[in-house]
Amino acid sequence: MPDLSILKTPAPYHILTYGTLLGTQFFQTFVGGVVAFRALPRPQFAVLQSKMFPIYFSLQTALPIVLALTYPGIPTPLGTASGPAGVLADVNRWSVLAPILSAFATSLANLLVVGPATTRVMGERRQQETQDGKKSYDPAPHSTEMQRLNKLFGRLHSVSTLLNLGGFAATIWYGITIAERLQ
Are 54 and 113 contacting, i.e. CB atoms less than 8 angstroms apart? Predict the structure, then answer.
């Protein structure tokens, strides 16, 4: 039987938080989003994503904070530094702080800046579709305004995707740090 006294330490909560972060990132990026794009008509896919992304980006932003708060310190000559103090310790700068901060920052950018801007442009495209009598994804030609909105949407979507993949890579990087401690 496992020793349940471990539940009085931050370690199990840290591992569960890490697993939740990596799992949600993997599922949304490589499974849920892809399946939804293939299965739903584009307008319904856009509505789904506009409702899912704020929740997803909120989780992606909050979970690195929980990781920092539950960081189970390692013994050092000066004692054990856990939680934020352990994350900020010089010895952990690149192995702990950098990936956790990167995952947090990329998600925060998507939550507060890129995501809302993308949703705003999607709304502008819907309005322009009404004016033009043509969908944004219909074959060319498009009005000058729709061309501008499509280009802007493409840029924002690309930035959001790169931020998301950067956060995913940072989470994997931190997972390698965790794995090193399990040896």
Answer: no
Neighbours of 57 (CB within 10 A): 25
76's enclosing H/E stretch is: strand 75-76
Q: Which burial class, exposed, middle or buried, applies to 121 when counting CB atoms under 10 A from its CB (0-12, 13-18, 19+)?
A: buried
Q: What is the pLDDT of residue 75?
A: 66
Structure tokens at 84: 């934020």
Q: Contact at 8 Å (CB) between 122 and 50?
A: yes
Pick the closest to residue 178 from 100, 62, 108, 102 (CA basis). 100
Which residues have a Cβ under 8 Å from the Cβ of 20 and sit 6 or more positions away? Answer: 59, 63
Residues in CB range of 113: below 8 A, 6 or more apart: none
Tens of pLDDT, residue by residue over 32-81, are 999 999 999 999 999 999 999 999 999 999 999 999 999 998 666 666 78
| Cβ proximity of 145 and 95 under 8 Å | no
Query: Which regions in the chain score pLDDT beneath 50?
Result: none
Question: What values do phi and psi take at 141, rounded to 5?
Answer: -85, 160
Question: Torsions phi, psi of 41, nearest 5?
Answer: -60, 150
30: enclosing H helix or E strand: none
The β-bridge relationship of strands 79-80 and 75-76 is: antiparallel
